Amino acid sequence: MNTTWGAMMTETDINEETPLQAWLNKFAxxxxxxxxxxxxxxxxxxxLVRYFTGNTENEKGNQEFVGSxxxxxxVINSMVRIIAVAVTIGLVAIPEGLSWAVAIILAYSGNRxxxxxxxVRKRSACETVGxxxxxxxxxxxxxxxxxxxxxxxxxxxxxNSSSIATNVLNLIQQGVALNTTGSVYRATSGSNTEFCGSPxxxxxxxxxxxxxxxxxxxxxxxxxxxxxxAFNSEKKRSGVSIRRSSSTKEDNGTIHVHWKGAAEIILxxxxxxxxxFGRMKDMDGNERRIFEKIIEDxxxxxxxxxxxxxxQIPDQEGHELKEDGLALIGLxxxxxxxxxxxxxxxxxxxxxxxxxxxxxxxxxxxxREIATECGILRPDDQDMNDxxxxxxxxxxxxxxxxxxxxxxxxxxxxxxxxxxxxxxMVQCLKDKCHVVAVTGGGTNDAQTLKEANIxxxxxxxxxxxxxxxxxxxxxxxxxxxxxxxLGLGRCVYNNIQKIIQLHLTVNIAALVINIVEVVxxxxxxxxxxxxxxxxxxxxxxxALALTTEQPTKxxxxxxxxxxxxxxxxxxxxxxxxxxxxxILFQALYQVVAILILQFSGESIFHxxxxxxxxxxxxxxVLCQVFNQVNARRLEKKNVxxxxxxxxxxxxxxxxxxxxxxxxxxxxxxxxxxxxxxLGQ
Length: 680
Hints:
- The protein is of the alpha/beta class and 680 residues long.
- It is built from 25 helices and 19 strands.
- Strands 3, 4, 7, 8, 9, 10, 11, 12 and 13 form a nine-stranded mixed beta sheet that branches.
- β5 (183-186) and β6 form a beta hairpin.
- It is elongated, with a radius of gyration of 36 Å.
- The relative contact order is 0.10.
């Protein structure tokens, strides 16, 4: 692809293997390669020694190998059986179902997130979002114009066309209608009007159309656009030069140049201004300071301040956009309101151990007020007056790489930032081993969303480019949904740990039991079909049961899961010391229970060998059922807490027990089992 968007789209793979699944496959392979080879070799050698030294017996109780009297066919059959036993034991030690179980968890969690108005575009985001340590907010909410200053006078709380001089009104309508990348759509029937573009563009278009009577299509018909300078994140401005389509005596071929952008930047380009009566006046030093104070006051009230400016030039001067000697038309204050749920969501994220950082194009005064209103900065917080907590994008960009890494974790608000600054900050946080989630919706946010560990795009306000670059889409544009996503992500991570504990417990117990059985000269207690059934319980039913666990407030309030660093491995992150304790004790319990039945079951329960084998089979399955219940709470003693609320978990456990009864009682021929009494 020759475009940036096309290049990003070619990198998207909807069938990608998640990082955790890749590690689990590697983990299983690392066990299989040396483990299967070495263990199987040792078992084969041990069994062959026992066989050829005459220490094994056949079904009739006679010695299997009696030297030259043993037929070659019998020796070959015995060797094949020995090799099959060794391979079976080796395979039992491999947790091959881990990756499949994780796939079930991620698929179920993705469907669950849809109910919370969240679409997961990449499966890996489900497992990653729970580990997020920093959330960078690039956009917030719907914007609207609430203030307008004409000259040095405010035009009411709700400005309209009747309160503005006609000549100035015409200039505003020209500048807003023609110096924009947005559009206005009016339905042929009905009064609904739709506005398209960036949040700022839509706020201006809505204000000019609904309050000032701007007709965008009429302006486009009356004027010809000669040259356009699109909005630039570095210069924070956009400009256009126009000429009336049909020349009049008033215009006489005059070219109009309109500029729009950050107030302080446009103000520096102006040498005059229009007053409230529509008269143009020169701007001296004192008046410039008055305008600067107006801009600061609007910013202090959490308003994003834009300026509109204009200049007329003769057609002979060419079509270049003049950048000095402009006349200031007015100052527009755009409110970016902080909805009530945003502050609550920010507080929840902070309590959950996740740092919230705001990255914005606003100036320092507006950004500080918005951050305080959202709870990112607190009035009683020492960071309010810390110059390292609120930093301009250009200042951050000019730091040395070492300074950026040193200061990046202290930054709470970045102002006047360009797309490059956003990207640079995310890269620095990742270099500091943070798991970074970024919320955005603009086209300029696409690279940052792509670079972040988790890109969260707003579904309503977000552009198509931003959505395609994101991992998760918030359909309702509600920041509170991010808290729910965070909780679900941590639940996914926790459920994956439960599955790992479940599998490793079964594998370790089965390995020890089979080795003891072989070394002691006994037959392996499970035939192939029995092993397949136990694996089905663990790989499918066990994964489904543990996947249904719902996120809790208690889980959200815990610290984020540890992240990979230079001194840690994935195994150390996923398998904690408490999990190893649970795995070893539960495996020991299963080993003891099964071996007691194997060596003393016939005498304890006064049954024959076939009934004893059936009891061992059923005991093993019930041990896995108990293991699933025990895995519900990795670090809590009360594993039954809240179990009555999870009907699906109880249903899967009940179904497992019923299916086991069916296998034992009605599928005896296939599984080589015997009917058991209620006591047995």
